[in-house]
Amino acid sequence: MEFRSPTVAAQQNAKALTYLTKNLSDPEAGRQLVGELFDELGNAVDRYPDWHPILTAPPRRSFEHVSGLSQIKAYAGIDHTIEFVRGFVTCPYTDERADRLVASAGQIAGLYARRLEGPLYANNAHPVVVVAMDVELEADGTIRSRNALSWFAQQTAAAAESAKVAETWWNIRSHLLGAPHGSRSSLFVNQHTGVHMRKILEAMNASGMFGPILESSLDMLSPKKRAAISETLIRTAVDAWDKESASFTFEMRGEMCKASLRDTWDDKTELSVSVEIGAHALYISGFYYPESCKITHVEPTGKREVAEKFI
User: Fold this and answer.
1) Model confidence, pTM
2) Which end of the chain is more exposed for a tag (fewer CB within 10 A), N or C?
3) Tens digits of residue pLDDT in 233-277
C-alpha cells in the first residue's frame, strides 16, 4: 500500500495525544501542551533514522551502532517517551531524574533540553523535552532535504571502515528512513529526499567500499509475488516429500532446493516446511495443512534474481 504521509501523520499524532493525556486529571491542559509540542517538534514518529542528530549527537564509541534512545547513556532516566521528527518528550516520575536528564542532554552540542511546566502522561510525572536544534522542517513536515542527505551520507560513509558487506536499500531502508515509512519516504524524509538517498547508497555499494553486496530483503516485490514464491516452493516440497525423510533435495526451475519437513504436532494436521537455495540465495518457511491444503508462511528472504524464478 502506498505511504500517505498526511494520513500516517494524523494517525501518529492522534495516538501520541491520547498516550500523553488520557491519564491526566486535566486532559485539556495536557492537550494544549501536546499541541505546542507538535508545533515545535513536528509529527510524532515511532523510530529515528540512524543518521538523525538525536541519535548521532551524543558521544559514543566509533564502532557502536545506536538505533534507539534507550541505548544512549546521556538519555538515562527516560520514561514514557514519545518521539517526534525534531526531538522527543519523556515523562520521568521524579524531579531528580528530570533535572539529571536536562543537565545531561543539555551538554550535548546541537541539542537543547528543558522541563515543561505542566504534567504529561501522569499527574505526578515531570516531562522533559529534548530538541535537535539543527533539524529544520520543510513545509510538508519532513527534514530539510539538504541536511538529511548530508547526515545520511556522512553516517553511511563512516561505516565503510568496519563494514564486511554492502547492504541494499531494501535491506536497511527502515534504518535510513525511520518509522513509520514507505518504500522511499517517511515522516522524516519526503520522496525527493528518499529517492536521492537510495541513489547515493547504490552508488556507494557499486564502488565496493563496503565489500560484496548482501541482498536479503525481497520487499521490492509486491506482497502478492512474495506470497506466490513461498507458496510455490512449500507446495512443491510437500509434493516431493516421501513422508519419512526430515530433509531432502529437489530440483525446480534450474535450482537445487534443500527442503526440511516435519509433522509439527505428530498428528498429521500441520507440517512445518522450509526450503533453502544456496547459502543465501533464497529461504522460505511456513506451514502446510493437509486437510485443507492451506499454506501460511513468513516473508521470504534472498536474492531477487533467484526469487523471481518461482513467481
Assistant:
1) 0.89
2) N
3) 999 999 999 999 999 999 999 999 999 999 999 999 999 999 999
CB of 135 closer than 8 Å to CB of 86: yes
Which parts of the chain sit beneath pLDDT 50?
Answer: 1
pLDDT at 95: 94
Using an 8 Å Cβ cutoff, are 126 and 97 in contact?
yes
- How far apart are alpha carbons 69 and 63 in whole angstroms? 17
Give the per-residue pLDDT at 144: 98
Backbone angles phi, psi at 128, to 5 degrees: -125, 135
Residue 127, CB half-sphere, CA atoms under 13 Å: how many?
A: 22
Distance in angstroms (rounded) separating the CA atoms of residues 284 and 258: 11
- Cα–Cα dist 69/35, whole Å: 23
If one counts every other C-beta atom within 10 angstroms of the C-beta of residue 169, the result is 20
